[in-house]
Write a structure and sequence with these properties.
Rossmann fold; 2 domains; single chain; 8-stranded mixed sheet; alpha/beta
């Protein structure tokens, strides 16, 4: 592990969000897998975290300036929240970042056909000024004290180039946590926008992705624009989790309480999915595949149940509202055909998800496309029933785990039903072998390993640039 150092972490969402309860300010864990994955940075390094103010109380905090905060493990870090204009943030987040960039980069081009979107205006009046605001905050922090800057994800493609123009010697890295698509996929967007995205990323000393597949696609799309990236500065390192911290979470009182609830009504065989209500997660096809499995295998009826724990996602965006409707409609169809075979819960309850991780026999991850998918790592680490993973070949984690999972093409409902059937039929020894291999891999390639790789890449690239 690299020695302790000064870092500026930049992401749209912060590690905590603020609210009020009976007049008192409360802090709660920030939403999203990215924040969960990055949170341990604060225990290992001297971190200033820059993020958007999301809640009303966040905005009150932003007005107070940079705060000293305490992480769950007692580590101290500085938190700077940026209070954006709501109308500008709406264009940035709800028109450009989500859904446009998200849909393009997850292969969901058909969802971009909303003629009501004014991309040019949303880009110029939303995405650009929010990235400029982030860059200005980074510039101010660098003026106080030199630090390495770690930008994260598709919300911040432009900020690195703005910072680079102001701070030519600053060590800058950007990590994209969602898939990258090749040259043809980007042609659905205006060329100036596509070029600005790629040039913004190439302004970093290091541009990182989870997989070699996404890295190769980035290099391909750069060359299509006539850009010549330095391939050594474009890297691939799959993010992971902290096994000790996650194991402790699995043994915590809130998780154990939810596990008791689950065990009280547990079927003989449990198929689990833990996702967000996002079109990229492909939940309706997964539910339909489970319905098809029960049609084919009457002997499984009454013995197997699917538990779908879904976090409601981006309900300000029409496509996400429609996806939730489709999920609930498909769940209703499954329940109508096979009463009691499906339990669908749509709520933000991470403790319930971790409890279910411990109890599943089969985990279904059939995303259309996914940058990585930490669920496949988290769940196998704490599962107590030699659980088997059915994993989409388009999930980034498949590149690492392919030898120990059952692969599935995400759009093939018949094949998904076949994979579920195969997973349920695997013998105990084979199940144990697969789970042990995944656990060993996650423990050897943990979050500490990922952080060290990012910083080593940045040190190497920035030292070359300074020569």
């Amino acid at each position: 592990m690299s020695s302790r150092r000064k870092l500026i972490v930049v992401s749209n969402r912060g590690p905590i969000s603020y609210g009020r309860d009976h007049g008192e300010r409360l802090a709660r864990r920030g939403a999203g897998g990215l924040v969960t994955a990055l949170a341990p940075l604060v225990s290992r390094h001297d971190v200033t975290w820059i993020a958007s103010a999301i809640s009303d109380e966040d905005r009150a905090v932003a007005a107070e300036g940079t705060l000293e905060e305490t992480a769950q493990d007692g580590s101290r870090y500085r938190l700077r929240l940026i209070d954006h204009s709501p109308s500008i943030y709406d264009l940035y987040y709800n028109v450009i970042a989500n859904p446009v960039l998200w849909f393009v980069q997850h292969g969901l081009w058909d969802l971009l056909l909303d003629e009501g979107r004014d991309l040019g205006r949303a880009w110029d009046e939303g995405y650009v000024p929010i990235n400029e605001a982030f860059a200005a905050a980074v510039d101010e922090e660098l003026g106080r004290e030199p630090a390495a800057v770690l930008f994260h994800d598709y919300h911040l493609y432009l900020a690195p180039a703005i910072v680079r123009a102001r701070r030519p010697d600053a060590p800058l890295a950007h990590f994209t946590h969602i898939p990258w698509v090749g040259r043809d996929a980007w042609t659905v967007l205006p060329e100036p926008i596509v070029r600005a995205i790629h040039e913004g990323l190439l302004a970093n000393d290091v541009t990182g992705f989870h997989t070699q597949r996404w890295r190769a696609a980035f290099l391909d799309s750069c060359r299509a624009l006539g850009l010549e990236p330095d391939e050594e500065r474009v890297t691939a390192h799959p993010i992971s989790i902290d096994p000790d911290e996650f194991g402790a979470l699995a043994r915590s009182e809130p998780v154990l309480a939810r596990e008791l609830e689950l065990e009280a009504d547990r079927p003989e065989l449990l198929v689990l999915r833990v996702d967000r209500t996002d079109p990229s997660k492909n939940v309706p096809r997964g539910l339909d595949a489970f319905r098809l499995l029960l049609e084919r295998r009457p002997d499984l009826r009454g013995r197997v149940r699917m538990l779908a724990l879904l976090d409601p996602s981006r309900q300000e965006i029409p496509e996400y509202v429609e996806e939730r409707r489709r999920i609930e409609e498909m769940a209703g169809a499954v329940e109508s055909s096979f009463p009691g075979a499906l339990t669908l819960k749509i709520a933000d309850d991470f403790h319930a998800s971790v409890a279910a991780y411990k109890q599943f026999d089969v985990l279904l991850v059939n995303a259309v496309m996914d940058g990585l998918n930490l669920v496949a790592k988290e769940a196998l680490l704490v599962n107590e029933r030699e659980g088997v993973v059915v994993l989409s070949v388009n999930a980034g984690a498949f590149e690492e785990l392919r030898d120990w999972v059952l692969p599935v093409e995400p759009l093939d409902i018949d094949a998904t039903a076949d994979a579920l059937e195969h997973a349920l039929a695997l013998g105990q020894e084979e199940r144990r072998r697969r789970q042990a291999a995944i656990r060993a891999h996650v423990q050897a390639h943990d979050l500490e390993h990922w952080i060290a790789a990012q910083l080593a890449d940045l040190d190497r690239a920035s030292s070359i640039r300074r020569r």
